Amino acid sequence: QRKMILDLDTGIDDALALAYAVADPRVDLIGIVSSYGNNTLEVTTQNALDLLHLLGQDDVPVFKGLPHSSTTDHFDVMQVSKDIHGDNGVGDVTLPHAPRVAETTSGVDFIIEAAHQYAEDLIIVPTGPLTNLAAAIEKDPAIAKLIGDVTLMGGALTVRGNVTSVTEANIHQDAEAADFVFKNQANLTMVGLDVTLRTLLSKKETKQWRELGQKGEIYADIFDFYIDAYDRLGIDHRGAALHDPLAVGIAIEPTYATFLDLNMEVTVDQASGDYGRTIGDNTKLLDGTSSRAAINVDVARYTRDFMDLT
Ligand code: BDR
Ligand code: CA
């Protein structure tokens, strides 16, 4: 079992990443760090608590991350996030309320403590902006080499972005933090739109969850909202993307994907037109590889395993 921290901006696909990590016997989920992103930090933290309650996991601690990027003093939820994830982040479905609140330790300090405690046994899977991880590395630079793996959902190298033509949403929320993480974190795997837009789920699959009782009904209602949004907004009429659960899957089972080893530094552009673009820097070639990007995925095997587990 690998120790895993999920850093979530819950979020419909984040909600599925959580269910997947909870269900996978190879994962020891040691804690959740919440992030602003698909909604405000208050809302995403509560969603994580409530979903864990629904999943019968009230003993998994939830730590609050940072409420906005370090380059701003506030955060506004993007309209596109509301369109895709609903006003409450989980498809406007009302969740049973968790009987507890988040821990008092900050998410940033939890990441630092866990890195020292578990070192190479620790996998961190950020599925929102990289603000929390960047802040943790900035506060304690030693952790960048201690953490076993960071497998993040974010970016786009070989396909268009989903915020602008070159920018993916998680990176776009905080390009400065993403750039810092790409430059400093060892053993980094990028699971971007290159692969996540290939793993789609349709109502044929969510219908199967409805046979699993209350938990399945709620998850099906949440995901159907997301499928309808993809259809309505013309993103994809075949189904909706398993962005965040694919990052969890690849973190545990890298053979789902094929990778491009980036033997150069990845940089995240910050100029206004390109803000948030993930791209290699050919002036900074590295010996060996520090990061890699998933560029293809075994869709059939991944989605079958995903359905078997959830
Ligand atoms: C990413 O952005 C968020 O809206 C999703 O939860 C996912 O993490 C996709 O670009
Ligand atoms: Ca997310």
UniProtKB/TrEMBL annotation:
Pfam families: IU_nuc_hydro (PF01156). One of its GO terms (molecular function) is purine nucleosidase activity. GO terms for cellular component: cytosol. One of its GO terms (biological process) is purine nucleoside catabolic process. PANTHER family: INOSINE-URIDINE PREFERRING NUCLEOSIDE HYDROLASE, URIDINE NUCLEOSIDASE. This is Purine nucleosidase. It comes from Weissella soli. The lineage of its organism: Bacteria, Bacillati, Bacillota, Bacilli, Lactobacillales.
